[in-house]
Amino acid sequence: MAIPISPPNGINPNPEAGPSSPKYQLSQTLTAHRRAVTALRFSNDGKTLLSAGADGWLHFWDPETGEHVRGFRAHKTGINDISISPDSLYIATASDDCTSLVYYLNPPPSTINFTSSGNDNTNELNEEEDVKDDSNGTGHTKENEPLRILKGHTAPVLSISFSPKSNLLVTGSFDESAIIWDLKKGKILKNLPAHADPIWCVNFDNEGAMVLTASLDGLIRLWDVSSGQCLKTLDNDTNSPVSFASFTPSPYFLLSSTLSSTLRIYNIHTSKVLKTIQSPNLYISEKFPCPSIIFAKPNLSSSSVDVVEDGDDANQEKMDIDVDGKNEDRNSKVTNHKDKQDAWIITGSENGKLIIWDLQSKSVIQVLQSHNSTVVAVAVHPSGRIIASGSLEPEKAIKLWRI
Amino acid sequence: MQQLLNPFAQKYPEAVDSTLSSQGVSIQFNPYGPFAGHYLAIGGSDGVVEIWDVETRGMIRLLEGHVKAVGGLSWSRNNRYLLSSSLDATAIIWDLSILTHPYLHPKTPATLPSSSSKASSSSPRLQTIRFDAPVSNAVFHPRNSKIVLATLTCGEVVLVDLRNGSRNILEDVVKNPDEPDEDMERKKTAMACATFSPCGSRIYAGTTNGMLLVIDPVTRYVLQRVKVANSAIKQLRFDASGQNIITSASDRALRLLSVDPLTSALTPLHRFQDLVNRTPWHAIGFSGDGEYVMGGAGHKMAHNVFIWDRESTVLIKVLEGPKEPLINCDWHPTRPVIASIATSGDVHIWQTSSPDNWAAFAPGFEELEENVEYDEREDEFDIEDETDLARRKNLEEDIEIDVLTLPTDSYPLPPKPPIHLPHQYLTSEETKLESDKHIESLRKVVNWADENPDDDTWEGFWLSLDLEEELGEDEE
């Protein structure tokens, strides 16, 4: 199944990271989207890989086998971003048609029993749904009807994110504003008149108390969710457009990428840049935003990747994984005390490469190379053992990498 | 997040920010965890328990099971379970990790098969405990939701241990130090209220004749007996640290007492009273940080919440709301927010107004009260050599940062029982022996409570939504 690739020796500029540390290997190439792959997400339970494309389609994959599970056309226009709720129940899209839609991640089997009530519900909430339904036939079945239609932006929605409690959504748009949505009611909760340029990225912190907005105007703003107040603004020394930003698992820092091929780690409280990561000629990001992800160096002590092997241990690990990046559990506290984990950062480059750095030393750990067009979508499996990447046209492929 | 908020912001609410349309008679914010105060449980006069999302001001759960007014609510340690007690003589434990939708199973650490044996169930109603009389209030043990303390309207307090099915009616019995087999005195006392201390090591009960009893939950002997008032103690609330108690008695006075965490010795500190109107109090409480004392006034024609400074005992604010009288209120565990119920059943959320912080919009800006002469730094306009700059920056960025570890002290957690000897008790041999005795007894309670724990082990628990569920809200 795995497609062997040439060993990365030739392109690894940091040989001392060396042969001892394990490498991600290309394992599969998945093709389904007819246009660029714009966003990829793993669900928190690790059981689903979701991909979105400029063709308006959503595709669901099994991350273990790479099998295509299902797919449907959610929007007539391109999808720019997707988010999966932390409880792995719902997904939300951000589209060029200025709306966001909420769907089930796994539609309940008995939609027949629930269609009548479910339909009334959504119709009441939004009458325009009928219009949408009639005009949208492609791959659309009853079970793929949106649970919520979020209308409010006046320009394409570029970024979307669920809150850690799955009760709110935040969207950032080309119309230079960000909106916090009440998911239950499907209505606007707060409108953040955020920036002077399109907002490319929005994200919640782990407690759901803050939202960040990152914009082409070179600024990152932090907002208090409960009052809608701006708490802080961060800039960068070159005023480069901010293409991506996210809070780190620890609430004291945030990670940003700018279209000057630079990643930065900020201290939120002092606004100081603590790490500046650049790899000239290797990492290029000047035109297309690509997410960058901080993740813990995968724990390979039980060298076998097979999760089924020893039940107890695997379960324990899953606990840690699910909790990671959200909230702490007793188990993970223990592991944290035992040995401090190394933090890695991965992002995609416009030369078709994916680069993994060690955050602490800022050195390149590995370069994943096999895309032949710009990588704009990256996702890391909650276990850290699988990486998914997606590229723009003409390649428009998803690649799965395993360690 | 907390650090980015204005440290000088007002710490008590000002005005009604929004009103939740309900039928409430009792309310309770979830007190602990990373999402402390994100949920508001409302017990209805019609027996319905509702859970509202404080952020969205929307109802997210409707729990139907009681047939009469729900007067008592209690959240389990990590918010997974909710205990509601009603005048229909039952208390119900709800498992909030379960959605009523039969096919929606949220995948969070709380619902992993290893931690939950009831994952296949589709009813949030976990257990119903029946009593012989209407239940005025029932609370979970702070360390284990399988232990429930219920106060009945007939003046009995019942300690229910669901692990072995035992039920014990608490009595005013002091252990006889000389003849352990024989009880020294046995008084027939009617108890009007009872609760666990926040650390779970003691039961505090107020009697109808004004006594405050401190009871060991394991031996069920009374350890302390303090005459607080000459009339019935109607209500009893701890602050989050467990070091202060406020009581409400039928003589219309609120009494503040401090508690020694080790010996549970009680020291009366102050008496709050509305001397002019002689207001009866319908609800009492502390602010989340324990700095303020709250009293919900039982005026017939007004909706008032009194706020005193705990330290100085000065009345600092009277919140004046709508006309309908107040029947209950609760203070948010982390923010200056109070929720109060009016006789109509509507819940009012009181908040501070937040003025815009314009300086936050521009990096490096600071809002000043008055003009300040700017002192430039020595090297502010120096031009640094580029290679030097790069080298200096590189050196600066060499520091270790830990971006993966989550802090554990950023949210409220129940206090821990003092089972390790605090320093102030190490003064002499005698006091050491004395405190060793206390510690041993506290240890026993902790071991008893931690034995056979509940499934509420995930500190970050939160409630998933069922987007297809109709909660009968008015369409605005």
UniProtKB/TrEMBL annotation, chain A:
Which residues fall in a compositionally biased region of kind Low complexity? 1-15
Domain of life (superkingdom): Eukaryota
Provide the WDR5-like beta-propeller domain boundaries: 29-402
Start-end of the WD repeats? 30-71, 72-103, 150-191, 192-233, 345-367
Enumerate the residue ranges of region (Disordered): 1-24, 114-144
Keyword tags: Repeat, WD repeat
Cited PROSITE patterns: WD_REPEATS_1 (PS00678), WD_REPEATS_2 (PS50082), WD_REPEATS_REGION (PS50294)
Which Gene3D superfamilies does this entry report, sorted A to Z?
A: YVTN repeat-like/Quinoprotein amine dehydrogenase (2.130.10.10)
What this protein is called in its record is WDR5-like beta-propeller domain-containing protein
Species of origin reads Kwoniella dendrophila CBS 6074
From TrEMBL, chain B:
Query: Which InterPro entries does this chain map to?
Result: RBBP5/Swd1 (IPR037850), WD40/YVTN_repeat-like_dom_sf (IPR015943), WD40_repeat_CS (IPR019775), WD40_repeat_dom_sf (IPR036322), WD40_rpt (IPR001680)
Mention any Pfam family matching this sequence.
Answer: WD40
Instruction: Cite the SMART domains for this sequence.
Output: WD40
Q: Which residues form a coiled coil?
A: none
Show the Gene3D superfamilies listed in the entry.
YVTN repeat-like/Quinoprotein amine dehydrogenase
- Each WD repeat occupies one of these ranges, namely 37-62, 63-97
Query: A Gene Ontology CC term for this entry?
Result: Set1C/COMPASS complex
Main site of residence? nucleus
Keyword Nucleus in the entry? The reply is: yes
Keywords tagged on the record? Nucleus, Repeat, WD repeat
Q: Where in the cell is it found?
A: Nucleus
What protein am I looking at?
Compass component swd1
Source organism per UniProt: Kwoniella dendrophila CBS 6074
